Amino acid sequence: MLAATAGSQSPSPPAPAPALQPFAAVLPGLALQFPRDFGSHPQFRLEWWYLTGWLETAAHESLGFQITFFRTRPASLEDNPSAFTPRQLLIAHCALSDPKHAGLWHDQRVRRAGFGLAEAEQSDTRVWIDDWRLERRDGLYRARLQAHDFGLELTLAPTQPPMLNGDRGFSQKAPSARSASYYYSEPHLRVAGSIMRADRRSPVSGEAWLDHEWSSEYLDPAAVGWDWIGVNFDDGGALMAFRLRDAQGATYWSGGSLQTAGGAVRALATDEIEFTPLRRWHSPHSAVDYPVSFRIRAGERRFELAPLLDDQENDARLSSGALYWEGAVTARDGERSIGRGYLELTGYDQPLSLGR
Question: Which letter, b or e, does each residue of 175-213 get, where b requires 16 or more Cβ atoms within 10 Å of its Cβ?
């Protein structure tokens, strides 16, 4: 062993690990600001941009589509000083409901943010994983996702200002206001573009819905999952409604926003919303039972939901860890169609751990 020479210095001690930063809290009374709040909010625990809608091909095929980008902040890793530590994780799901062909085309991706490969920018909606992208530019949304055997390339044009859910964007998820999110929707997006199925490209047009939501404490411990709908009514109105379920399947909490044909929006109280299951579907893939048809009461609206097809189950256990049903539905008044939208069912296989 060599003795230290004169003038040599002892190695510097390793830099201390960065201190864990607390998640930001969702508080009532904060005014959402656009375009800033179109962008990412990395100080919160989780966030998503959720696009759903109906498309029609030139051959008059009716299709449903879902594009979702999630951002989550894994606090348990924040004290690791390595540049490769995943400070933010990005997850993407995409699906195409196609009753005449494959049934449900779906795919998923997950990446750590950074290195130019995956990111959710803060200034505006601009989120991507590799070549899967959703961005807002010149007032329009553009989505481009190429999966293994299908793809979507869509332009979505807003037709109205964002619909602020809950109390001016503060959406409570439980009796305690600690379980809450900041949340706005953009109903009645006009859609144009194309889809790929296998090697066949088809031009499409249609109407869609965008949800953007961010939170740090989303689910109350008593809630195991939720049922959610976003419906574009044919008369120009729109409805977002949800119910959180307890371990016995009963409604634990509910909320929603109802927009009239004239554009006026009001928040719905918990006792104004009712989801009554009408029919269940047993998944041959997971053996989970889902209520795929409902009778809905939401304020002055009364209607039934019928799925475009029963098998719209998404197995995202390799990315977000969730198994859920997300599907295109028609709103019906008797035999008459009055609108179209999407229904999401979570926590039917096991309780969600989202945001606990």
Answer: eeeebbbbbbbbbbbebebebbbeeeebebebbbbbbbb
